[in-house]
Write a structure and sequence with these properties.
The complex is a heterodimer. By secondary structure, chain A is mainly α. Helix content of chain A is about 85%, strand content about 0%. By secondary structure, chain B is of the alpha/beta class. Classes of the chains: A mainly alpha, B alpha/beta.
Chain lengths: ~220, ~240
Amino acid sequence: MRSFLGQAWTLVRKDLAMELRSRESLAPAGVLALLMMFVFQVTLDLQTPQVAAVAPGILWSALAFSGMLGISRTFLREQDEGCLDGLLLCPGDRGMIYVGKTLGSLLMNLVTAAVLLPLFFALYDLPFPFLLVPIVLLGTVGLCAVGTLCAAMTVHARAREMVLPLLFFPIVLPMLLAAAQFSAGLFAGRPWAEIAHWFHFVLGFDIILLTVCYLGFEYLVEE
Amino acid sequence: MDEPMIRIRELVKMFGPRRALRSINLDVGAGQCLVIVGPNGAGKTTLLRVLATLTRPTSGQVIIDGLDITHEADAVRRRIGFLSHQSLLYGDLSAEENLTFYGRMYGIADLNERVTTMLENVGLGSRRYERVRTFSRGMRQRLSIARALLHQPRLVLMDEPYTGLDQQATDALDRLLSGGETQRPTVIMTTHDLDGGLDMAQEAIFLSDGVMAHRMTRDAWDMEAFRRLYRENPTQSQP
């Protein structure tokens, strides 16, 4: 187990080091998320009562689209010079590659979310509900869990840019809807008891998808 | 022969309806060098990828150093060094960072010392902090050799290793494979270069359309027979 986690962490460190040098995932994902915020804010011309109802959709759309853009690069950097083979040749459970890649994507997406959220509340003039932090964390875990597997599946596909969203969004849609419903409840000031089921849905989605993706990863990358 | 390093029995690999390997049977002794020759599409790279656990056999059994590659792939991978057409190196990392990354993944003890030794062995000690992206092709190949042999594998699999290699890289590869620092590894390599490629081999096989069409040991080398087989077996891709 220690070796498994050690290898996964080595992979995360390598990905972060490469990202810090190239900024090929964080920069476009962050810019896309910020642009979406501005575009919706400018074009929808929302009045105060409407904002709480519409804002969750805007927030989760920005997180999902920017997340997918960043995650799509996860395995592309392994494609150059056959580096994916280099990872597959390493000893140990190949699920370690999935865990490392998902963790790396999660860290990068959380950085994007940390930049995005203050701007979101400033632009839409909403109060900051503390429970938004755990739902954004759980939602991002779900996006990364599915996105990492989809990125691995499509890394050799010819029309990768088209295939990845077609695979990714139908799978994460239920989770996105639940996270948006929970966020809407928070913005509307509804009590925990009324919206807890949405939170539990996202948590359950994460556990199931992480398990399924981990178990299926080795077979998918090999064949 | 003692217990062979590699034992292959009735190995079949199919890609959809296409048979890439058909009932391969082969033993390779420890410390030996086996060269696989054959036209493009004959199944040479597929055979290497199966041995490297990069692709699963459809049927048959492959035992490496007493371990079944299907059920004990983790332990098998620790024993394998793989040198392919591609360098398997990250351009945005330095030479040292690349080797350190792979060294950590293999759990190598005294890693810093080992990385330094390997960089010196391939003549890249003075370039260790430079990004691989800035390296020439020859330098990348030398670093790729260091990567493949970093964990002192008992079995080295090489896919056309000498193609495009400069003289310095060729010398480095020959020196490292001769087992100067440790026990000589078992080597399996594919090549089209009959003259150069067979130099270090004790045995050679000719693959044709996924079948082992000819096998020859060094004491019965017949280069003309291999050349004739090449002429008679053009590039293959039929199902």
